[in-house]
Amino acid sequence: MRTTGYIILVLSVFLIGFGVTLRHGAPFVEDGGAQPLAAPAASASDTLSGHFTNCDGPQRVNCVVDGDTFWFAGDKIRILDINTPETSSPQCDREYALGVQATERLTELLNAGPFSMESGPEDTDRYGRLLRRVTRGGRNLGEVLIDEGLAERWRGYKGNWC
After folding, report:
1. Which of 26, 46, 83, 125 sits 20 to 30 Å CA-CA off 9?
2. Hey, which bits of 12-151 come out as E strands?
3. Residues with catalytic annotation?
4. CA nearest 51: which of 40, 33, 63?
5. Positions in the chain whose pLDDT score sits under 70
């Protein structure tokens, strides 16, 4: 009886630890997942830059919210034409893990050197975020995220990452 209780305790601790690791631990990469591409090289027309971190706290100047939203010089920017997995309200552990990877990758891309932003057909979205295409050396950084499997093309609605 005592051995059975011990086995159940050890198994419970293992399962809880495994669940926490899936939810908050190491990045989730599916087999066959795309490897990160080299960040595009800047061109002379790329004049914007900043040091980006994860958004944490009330002051948001240059920080990344998630894989498709960031703050730059105090403005909240939504990257045009892409959608990335949610980290604030994910529908499953897979979406959360991919969302964390997309957030980290966008931070890396923005910190990799000067970039440019251009407006699309609409200046803002319904949440007041500035809608911008973000490029470096003429290469759309949103396309980089799509090519790496961390974003999808925006179709007017959120996709299912689960």
Report:
1. 26
2. 53-54, 63-66, 69-72, 75-79, 82-83, 116-124, 130-136, 139-140
3. 78, 86, 129
4. 63
5. 1-35
- Write down the pLDDT at residue 12: 54
Burial level of 58, CB count in 10 A (0-12/13-18/19+)? exposed
Strands (E), the chain: 53-54, 63-66, 69-72, 75-79, 82-83, 116-124, 130-136, 139-140, 152-153
pLDDT for 32: 42
* Whole-prediction pTM: 0.77
Using alpha carbons only, how large is the chain's radius of gyration in Å? 19
Distances in whole angstroms, Cα of residue 149 to Cα of each of 39, 59, 105: 15, 30, 11
Helix, strand counts (H, E) of the chain: 3, 9
Q: Residue 85's pLDDT is what?
A: 96
- At residue 146, the pLDDT reads 97
Q: What residues contact 148, with CB distance under 8 A and at least 6 apart?
A: 34, 35, 36, 37, 105
Q: What residues have CB less than 8 Å from 88, skipping those under 6 apart? A: 66
Q: Residue 109 has which token pair?
A: 């891309």
